[in-house]
Queue: 3 jobs
Job 1
Amino acid sequence: MKTHVQIVILVLLSLIVTACAGRNPYAIDDPVKLKRMSFVMAPGANGNWPARVELVRVDDKRLVADLIATDTSAWFGETGEAFRRAHPGAAYDAWELVPGQAKGAVDVKRKGKFAGVLFCDAQSGSTPFRVRRDGHLTVVIDDTGCRLEGVAGKNRRSRRSKTVDVSFAMGAATNGNRPLRVELVHVDDKSLVSDLTRMSGTAWFRAGGQAFRRERPDVSVDDWELVPGRHHGPFRLAVNRKVNGVLFCGPSQPLELRWRRRMEVEVYGDGCRMSGTSRRSDSPRSGSERR
């Protein structure tokens, strides 16, 4: 009788082992579904030195734990190099950010079930971030260090959503023949739209934009750096029909956008206008107050 029971137990154990062998117990069960990333680095941040950012995606829970426990400075040294040699199947995306500039949106889509860990090398220090967001994620670097902004799933399309293509045309001598930073803010609150259209581009790109993002981390922002003498785009954006777009472009007051399937934006001396319209008609409001 005892032998019979032992045989049954061995058979059950064998079945359990076989079942477990058919799947990886360390597989990622909450994969990151990141599509785009943007980067904003405040003027003078990181001692006015460039900062490195790297997104690492792995398909094993044990590797996630190892990465989270890794010191950021060590990652950008021998530790990171050793990890890459040991795990060539991981996915790596790296950027170097310059103070006072924005970058993105960058397409970072990957196929497969990966977990994401982000390293941000700023002097104020930061531990690695476990990236758990869908859609669009923004990395912000300022005097406080690094932080991530974005809301899971906020870029998923709904019945009220559509796609628009935005292009920018910039003359060769525009902005003193220097690159120009442009940001498009997606706002679903009309009172916020009113506040933003009263803010000058100078105020937004100095401290106003940073303060607004801290207070409203749910708001999505697309940003570009335009080079004079070139046509940029089209950039395809997913937008909600009930969300307004406020475009900051140069030092003047912003342009409130009305979504169309294709939007051509011209950059002139100190601002932007929709292609084919006059400067007067582009003004968000006559006599509006600047901050």
Note: The two ends are 89 Å apart (CA to CA).
Job 2
Amino acid sequence: MPGQKGLILGIGVSSADHIPGMRRAAATLGPGTTVRIYGPETLQDDGVPDLILVPDPAAALIGDLVHRTIDGAVRGTLAASHTLRLLRDAVGADHLERVALLETAGGRLFFLAPVGVDEGWTVKEKVALIRRGRELVRFFGLPDRVGVLSGGRLGDLGRHPAVDRSMADAELAARLGEGVHCEILIEDAVGECGLVIAPDGIAGNLIFRTLAYLGGGKGHGAPVTNIEPVFVDTSRASDDYSYALRLAIALVRERKERYPGSN
């Protein structure tokens, strides 16, 4: 996805060690996109104009995003809890919904949700994630099939009440969201589906961390889907920020096309 002329993106940095990688990623976007790097004032200013050093880089990044000084933002390596809380408060949302783009060690791309431990605990929340996640899947050309996971196979019914509830919720979420209940068979879901819905936020976070930290896979960023500004969350499990920046560019472009004059 090439950069779009006139776009300005922001990305947060907590350590000078990450700045070279962010600049390398920005260079792959082409001359039409500018990337501003927001970092703490404790870092040394190297004189390059893309580096913005302020007391609270997360506040500056979110402030510029909501005031449309920049077209989209990527969290980068800023602290997740502080940055996401500022984003939630700035847009007036009571919660944030993220859908992560993951890549297996074998190169299979798929979206996963929920990935926050406080997300996706009810059927209603799962259906909302399916609806918004399906839009991402279609936009990025991944398989349109949605797989909803649960805590066991259907043959495990009766072994534990939590497993029974998990399967009942997955069946209902799959039916309401026009997906398929893949039981606990994540390997089948990833092989067939562009969007995978974990049983709850803890399970989704464990799936993400296992794949990215232990399984040789990658996390390419998690767009926040229930707010108007384009914000892509990231994990420190990946030192390649090009995918997250390109995700932001694609979503900004799509939003400009859908809502002309909105930015």
Note: The domain at 101-218 is CATH 3.40.718.10 (Isopropylmalate Dehydrogenase).
Job 3
Amino acid sequence: MSRFLGPIHYIMFEKIQYLNKIVNSMKDLVDEDIDLNEIETGELSDLIDTDNIHGWLQQRVSLVEDNLAKVLSVLKSEGKLDEGYKIAFDFGKNENFSGDATEAFQYMSDKFLDGMPCDMANLPIESDSNDFRWIKRLDVHKAYYIYGCDVSVYDDFRKSWLDGLLSNSDLSYEIEDNINIIK
């Protein structure tokens, strides 16, 4: 295990912080009092346990993923999922993305938690600048959906974000026969 912070640790922390911002925005929609896990903000080097870098980061990944599952579940029970998806869409749109299909996939990968890159949770199967295809090899999110809805709400959440990301481009996102496609 590493005792020194490297680029991948900062990347993972940025993904945690980004998802936490979306969760907190969606939390404002819920009527009931919802108990979310606290996610620290600030400089990673000031927060992290350098004796347990990977464990510390993995715990925050679990906390923010659990928070998202809770918020999406409550939004579903309150009939407000579409409003939550609109927030995800707006976060994607506010990225002001411009690029090709391969760059769009990479951009999504830079923002969302799908395990470590070596996990290959999202496995590319075909790509060029006009068409990027991947399969979800591992569903690292499913374990968090224990609050009254299944992981499909996460998939719809991510689709909403991707739709927003691509809204100012000629690209679109769709799923055909379990293959994710940006084209």
Note: Residues 32 and 148 are 15 Å apart (CA to CA).
